[in-house]
Amino acid sequence: MLCRIVIIGFAVLWFLSLVILAIGTFGWFGQEQDPLSGVYVVLLGSPWIQFIGSAGLASPLVGIVAPVVNLLCLVLACRIFGSRN
Q1: How far apart are CA 44 and CA 32, in angstroms?
Q2: What is residue 85's predicted lDDT score, i.e. its pLDDT?
Q3: What is the per-residue pLDDT across 16-69, written as a single tens digit (0 to 9) for each?
Q4: What pLDDT score does 73 carry?
Q5: What span, in angstroms and rounded, lies between the C-alpha atoms of 63 and 42?
Q6: Domain region containing 47
Q7: How many domains does the chain have?
Q8: What three-state secondary structure class fits 37?
Q9: Phi-psi map region of 59: left, alpha, beta (phi>0 left; psi -120 to 50 alpha)
Q10: What's the CA gap between 66 and 48, in Å, rounded?
Q11: Fewer CB atoms inside 10 Å of the end CB: C or N, the chain?
């Protein structure tokens, strides 16, 4: 049950960070365009964004998709540790 809450919570945070990124990038809802609006996506995608960036493969799409790796790690950990009950 706790694993499901953590996974859903992480997915919701990722969705909200993408919404904040879109609002700040395109200036929706009367907001000024902000180059730092993607900081939450970067935080959720750590350490994969730093790893890919140091390899020279950085792009905005990689930054947006990097939190999926952390989400998959959470799902895998929940399946491994959840099956021991």
Answers
A1: 23
A2: 54
A3: 999 999 999 888 888 888 888 889 998 998 898 888 877 777 778 888 888 999
A4: 94
A5: 7
A6: 2-82
A7: 1
A8: coil
A9: beta
A10: 6
A11: C
